[in-house]
Amino acid sequence: MVCPMTPSRFLPSRREFLQATGAAAAMATLPGVASGAARSARTTTYAFISDTHVDPEIEDRTAALRAVLAAIEAKDPALVVNGGDVTDDGSAYQYQAYCDLVPDSLRGRMLHVPGNHDARHDASAYETWDRFLANDEFGGARNSSVVTPDGLHWCLPDLTVAQQSAVRLDEPTRDWLGGALERNGADRPTVIVSHHPPMGDEYYFLQNSETFAETIQPFRVRAILCGHMHAERVRRLNGLTVVAGKALKQVTGDIGFYLLTRVQDGDRDVLTVEFVSVPLTPATAAAEPRPVTSIDLAADVADLEPAEISAGVDRTGDALTVRAGFDRGQPVASVSALVYNQDIWVGRDKDGQTWTPLVADGNGFAGDLPFGHEPPGEHRAILRVEGTSGEIWREIVTVTKPGDGFAPMWRHSMGDMVHSALAHHDGLLVAATVAGRVSAFRPGAGRSRPQWTRRIGPVYSRLAFAADGGTIYAPSSDHHLYALDARTGRELWRTDLGVPVMADPLVTQIDGEPQAILFAGETLYCLDAGSGRVRWRRDFGVRSMGRAACDGELVYVGVGDGRVHAIDARDPRRTAWTQLLTDRPDTHGRLTKGPWDCQVLLAGRTAVVGTKDNGFGLRLDDGGTPAWSRPGSFIFCPPVLVGSDVLTIDEAGHALLVDPSTGAARWEASLPVQLFGPGVVTRGSDAYVTSSTGSVHLLDLRTGGHRELRQVCKEGIIATPALCDGDTTFVVAGMDGMLQAFEA
């Protein structure tokens, strides 16, 4: 993770509370506990909200949240939990506005977990979140575990990925989650809160939901509260209830919060969930709370877990045979299965699912799933067990489909997520992880052992080689830009830029001298590439996380004000021109719909840039006036020069080979990919297109024809791969940290 994560213990544990005050005093004074109730029956209330998306420029949304928080305050709950997307884009002014809205009486009994809107556009590596929310008032440490005085364990794992819409239980958070559950005991009931629904038949949000399920399975997790979908849904599986809440962002219709009431009465321990509507005008009468669901915290989970599961592909590759074995006496009514839909990226299956019933076979169930349309590589199948009383158990099994050609030559685990693009020069490949491990390889040697490894700060942005290949530049969220000797990994220098370095460095020449140009926070820096000395800086007052371009005279960079700026490469105070690329008038819209994260490509006298809504060709000699534009989200996949043409692909896989000066397309093609990070690598007339969903496709640059080569990673990919050794070796890194090398 980017920053150390510690449990937030501003609420006393049950043991601490009873030791300090005695059980009777605790029940008499705890907010949300009925003081007149008998000792054997007690009631505790909690409140849950999500997707507040605070933006002070949107006044009706601010007013709605103010009204909801006032209504929550009137209920006097023991705990208030915000399920993420606290802000619209992670800006400091939005966090400040949110904190200002929270009544004083609720501070000290709140918990928060980040959402994708808090992470995706954040240039601070969560430091802004920590500054406002990771304290005793707001309880927003990004991995929080607390026990309320009634003995209920609340656990809030952060499943977001910095600068991404992707969701994954990474290794440090997995260890933290398992440890938090273990410390609080296998028998204590637990409520988990995450922004995205981590489990559910149609939910494909979490890249490794099977790891999440395995981590929580030994413990008494009985409920998961989440948001993200902006719609209320209740799902029951694996002995727990998943409740997705409505969004407070939606200020029309039914606005309110979720009231959770726990009643403990002897052996009875029930948590009921209701939605409380909040009238936004005095003329509107308050409605009665609407029942949502009821969760039995004391119930044991039906024993539906298969004793064994096997899966294998038949000789033709057309069928996936799945078998689940059970012990005698397990209350199993039926078993069905389907192939995991690997094409869904951080979403849900909106088209419905076709489950294949498995047939009773001795002490288990077995059946064949259609598998012929799947490419070779890593796949998953979902097993769904239904009990005799209607309970559901869900489990995921991994299987590898064999195939001819494009099989991995070697694999190497980096130990943690690879977020940044792989870098290569003259046969040397360098990869970096979010834990700060940087390793160099010689892929063509056929060995996966690193040539060297160096530990620095966490790396989220692209590495860059010097022109001669002797130095590697590594930006880190620990505030430094590092220069490493490419041969040995020895640190040559590091420069502290004062804030996390989350943008991609450009290594270029100005007046014949090598320079490194990159953003850190809201400031563009030019550093001497040999010494790390800062030559100049330009403060823009807004963030940028892409990569600049330079022609030796001007530096061209997309910024979070919705504009591309062209500034003097020697005197950054001089602006040659700016070009606004979005019609959004609001601060949030100009950031998220502008070129804040684009890789600027110079093609002749045209700058090719992308935004969330369009791709552009800007005339460098005409003040950046657009020569052409194409609709589509072209901000994620960097454009690539192909001779004198440019290959550009939007996030939905729409590919074009265009004349950069006119925008005229040589051809267009639609690839079955989703691109939210990995870039394209080319070799001659071929391009390797790597989908965020883990598949690799070969694109013919002459015609636009394409074919799928392999499903190389089941957990998804956000790092750009590399072609090494004279373009004969293709190397890719998954979110699981696994490097794989293929013969190209």
UniProtKB/TrEMBL annotation:
Matching InterPro entries: Calcineurin-like_PHP, CNP_phosphodiesterase-III, Metallo-depent_PP-like, PQQ_b-propeller_rpt, PQQ_rpt_dom, Quinoprotein_ADH-like_sf, TAT_signal, TAT_signal_bac_arc
Chain ranges of the Calcineurin-like phosphoesterase domain: 46-231
Gene3D superfamilies xrefs: 3.60.21.10, YVTN repeat-like/Quinoprotein amine dehydrogenase
Highest rank taxon of the organism: Bacteria
Keyword entries, A-Z: Hydrolase, Iron, Metal-binding
PANTHER family per the UniProt record, alphabetical: CYCLIC NUCLEOTIDE PHOSPHODIESTERASE CBUA0032-RELATED (PTHR42988:SF2), PHOSPHOHYDROLASE (PTHR42988)
Protein name per UniProt: Calcineurin-like phosphoesterase domain-containing protein
Organism of origin: Jiangella asiatica
